[in-house]
Amino acid sequence: MTVTLIIFVAIIVFGLITGTITTIMAFKLLRNNEEKHHLRKSILMDGIPTEAIIHDIVQTSSSRDGRPGVRLDLTVTQVDGRTFPTIVETYIPITHIPHFQKGNVINVRYIAMGNERKVEVQDAYLP
């Protein structure tokens, strides 16, 4: 009888610990996604507008609200004329797909964060 009680208590404790860890991880993931979304909006609203050349476009396995996810290999031209390469993962509306082809010039915005630059595509989908 005591062995059964110990096993029962161990199962309950294990379940509580597992549930707590799962809940904490879910909240961290949600907060991280919210922070990324806020940063993207901030770049699109306050970033420096410029143009970028598409060197490569690859569809990712993700989509959001029916819009395909893509990985864009870009060369961004800064306001001072210097360029820098970057890779942006974003979602594009299906109606904009013809604009997102190799060699095309697209509008982007960027911000400098220390030595790093964060880039967002202006015509991309932002939920």
Report what the structure shows.
It is a single chain. This protein is of the alpha+beta class and 127 residues long. The chain folds into two domains: 1-46; 48-121, OB fold (Dihydrolipoamide Acetyltransferase, E2P) (Beta Barrel), CATH 2.40.50. 35% of the residues lie in helices and 41% in strands. It contains one helix and five strands; from the N terminus they run H-E-E-E-E-E. It has a five-stranded antiparallel beta sheet, with helices on one face. The radius of gyration is 22 Å and the shape is elongated. The mean pLDDT is 89.
So, CATH architecture of the largest domain?
Beta Barrel
H/I helix tally: 1
Tell me the number of structural domains: 2
Identify the overall geometry. elongated
Question: Summarize this, please?
Answer:
The protein has 127 residues and is α+β, with helices and mostly antiparallel strands. It has one helix spanning 2-46, and strands spanning 48-64, 67-77, 83-91, 105-113, 116-121. It has 2 domains: 1-46; 48-121, OB fold (Dihydrolipoamide Acetyltransferase, E2P).
